[in-house]
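Researcher: Let's do a round of design. I'm pasting the structure tokens now; please hold your answer until I've finished.
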């Protein structure tokens, strides 16, 4: 009642190729992910339009990428794409874009302040100048 070794090999090989195919359907290059997120977030394309045009399996995948992008943006791990001429000049969209840029600027300023504070502390604690002084030879 045990299946033959050849049959076992067939099923193992078949299931591996099915897994690889499933993974390949959802494996997209990072550059493409970023481009598609920017189309939805900044250029007012719908998730449905983008998914259909670029062959993304479903809009849930795009939603996931957008959420990941927004988290990276909040952490300052992503720079905002330059604003291109929007598909429609909607005042609300432009206000949202300004709000996003202001938040990103605020986070960048906090990061700069924190880094400067760390350098100040290190210079005092270790009595070693870290910052390059103006007018010194290079």
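Researcher: That's everything. Go ahead.
Model: Designed sequence:
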């Amino acid at each position: 009642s045990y299946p033959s070794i050849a049959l076992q090999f067939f099923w193992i090989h078949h299931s591996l190729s099915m897994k690889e195919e499933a993974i390949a359907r959802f494996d997209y290059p990072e550059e493409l992910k970023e481009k598609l997120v920017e189309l939805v977030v900044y250029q007012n394309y719908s998730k449905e339009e983008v998914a259909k045009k670029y062959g993304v399996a479903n809009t849930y995948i795009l939603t996931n990428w957008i959420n990941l992008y927004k988290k990276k943006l909040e952490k300052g791990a992503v720079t905002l794409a330059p604003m291109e001429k929007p598909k429609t000049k909607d005042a609300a969209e432009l206000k949202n874009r300004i709000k996003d840029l202001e938040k990103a600027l605020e986070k960048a300023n906090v990061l700069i302040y924190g880094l400067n504070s760390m350098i100040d502390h290190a210079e005092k604690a270790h009595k070693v100048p870290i910052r390059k002084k103006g007018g010194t030879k290079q």
